[in-house]
Design goal:
Heat Shock Protein 90
Length: 141
């Protein structure tokens, strides 16, 4: 399978955008990936974008969020880029206590769930922008 051009979606700083993000992901992955991978990609991107929206900027500050998906030979790479506060989710410590609903509500649990679904993830800060890269690998039958 030849590499494809990445697909890109730009989101507003609004949690209602998660519905648009979910539909966009489903449309891109419906034909090409298993339902397990599609679910993992959708879950991880929604969780990551929700955290960017909730914690990435002070109230009233403009926040630019772009999501990109790229598919190549059994691998799907997702990138989330934003101009919010500097935060490297790959360095977030594991929760000290077992996960609870209270932890999930304040976003403390999110990055640990993302780690459990993505094959790997990386973070970089470039020109004042955060870029989180998540890689998902299709299981070979």
């Amino acid at each position: 399978m030849a590499p494809r051009e990445p697909s890109r979606l730009v989101l507003r700083n609004d949690l209602a955008e998660l519905t648009r993000l979910a539909g966009w992901i489903e449309g891109l992955t419906r034909q090409d990936v298993s339902s397990d991978v599609s679910f993992a990609v959708q879950f991880c991107l929604e969780e990551a974008v929700a955290n960017v929206i909730m914690y990435g900027a002070a109230k009233g500050d403009p926040l630019e969020i772009a999501v990109e998906l790229e598919r190549d030979a059994g691998t799907l790479v997702a990138r989330i880029e934003d101009n919010g506060r500097h935060f490297d989710p790959t360095r977030a410590p594991a929760p000290e206590q077992p996960a609870s609903l209270a932890e999930a509500k304040v976003g403390n649990l999110g990055i640990h769930l993302v780690r459990s679904f993505a094959h790997d993830m990386g973070y970089e800060r470039l020109n004042g922008r955060n870029r989180l890269t998540l890689r998902f690998v299709e299981a070979r039958s």
